[in-house]
Amino acid sequence: MPIDKNSKAQAVRDYVAEHPKASAQEVVDALAEQNITIKVPYVYKVKSKSPKPKATSPKKTKSTSKSASSKQWTFPKNTLEDAIRIPKSIEEKNAGNPMRATELTKAVGFKRANDWRFLDQLRSANQYGLVSGTGKTALVRMEKLGQDIIVPASPRQRQEALLAAFNNVPDFKAVADFYGDKKIPEDEFFLNTLTREFKIPRDRVDAFSQVFLANLDYLRAFAVASKDMPTADSAKIKVGDDEATEKALVERTIAKRPHVREFLDTCFVMMPFGDWSDRYYQDIYVPAIREAGFEPIRADELFSTGSVVEQIWEQVQKAKVLLADLTGRNANVFYELGLAHAARKPVVFAAPQVEDVPFDLRHLRVIIYEVREPDWSTKLRTSVTDYLKNAFKDPEKSIPHPFRGEPED
Prior knowledge:
50% of the residues lie in helices and 7% in strands. The chain is globular, with a radius of gyration of 24 Å. The protein is α/β, with parallel strands linked by helices and 409 residues long. It has four domains: 5-69; 76-155, Arc Repressor Mutant, subunit A (Orthogonal Bundle), CATH 1.10.10; 169-251; 266-403, Rossmann fold, CATH 3.40.50. The two termini are 22 Å apart.
């Protein structure tokens, strides 16, 4: 459906209000990412018709300034987990040294430095205090807080840094302090409180709620020790409360031992569920994946409610590497495997017999284990660790040929 002129004009005004120093061409490029097609002369035309602040008395000037600043986002548009990709890319691609935004944008996974998604992510990383430098031409430097998260000296240092990054956003800290260790109410009442008590604009409370609650889940996964953190429906247990964690996991009927997250990079595991599969996962795959330096995640461990397929797709996209146990040619596993290949992700295969592996995938990294061999489980653990490390270093060999290379923009 085509966008009318009034909507286009409003889109220009909104973008200019949030990016007052943006050039006309930058406005055109940014709105093009939102499927809004305009030309440079149109931007000048809208700007010329926009009302300008009147510099009369000091009182009116102050009021005008306050009105303009109220249009700025006072909280990150991205979750802490997404924002961490910025300093992590600096560490991985440039050994932690400062990078120009033009180079960093490609390291993060975008093609152009003026991509609004990259600029939002970079701005969020600044707001969390992970990096300094924002904008498409900035020199981006990783700050100490980012270093403590990406290359910590101990798990405790990472936990403290994650909590400090969350509290570095005044709005997030204020809301967390307001609720203390109490349960956050249902959506409607929570959103109303955000608007009435914390002056979050009504058109932004949904975004605030999603990012805020996602951050609580992320902190809880790392068992960040803060007894005063609030709880919510998507996070019904206190951050750092091990007994509550175990109880909640039992209530969700997950037949596995709970574990605290240790690593930033994840390995999504695709495998059948059930007694023996769950034992394999806990006793073999989890320690093997962690030995390789990744955090294991399986579909039945996802915390949030909603569409299972969407959550699986999200985890597939976030994962650095994936592990697929093809035992019995399980239909769900093959569906998730298709998503992984479509996302151009490296996958390591494991199966008790070669017949479980499709013929046209046997040239990739495949582990065949024989349960009747002595010490088969130890051998499998070692193989999984080695194969995952190799897949991370050389992902092309774990991706089918038609899916190799960069995806289309």
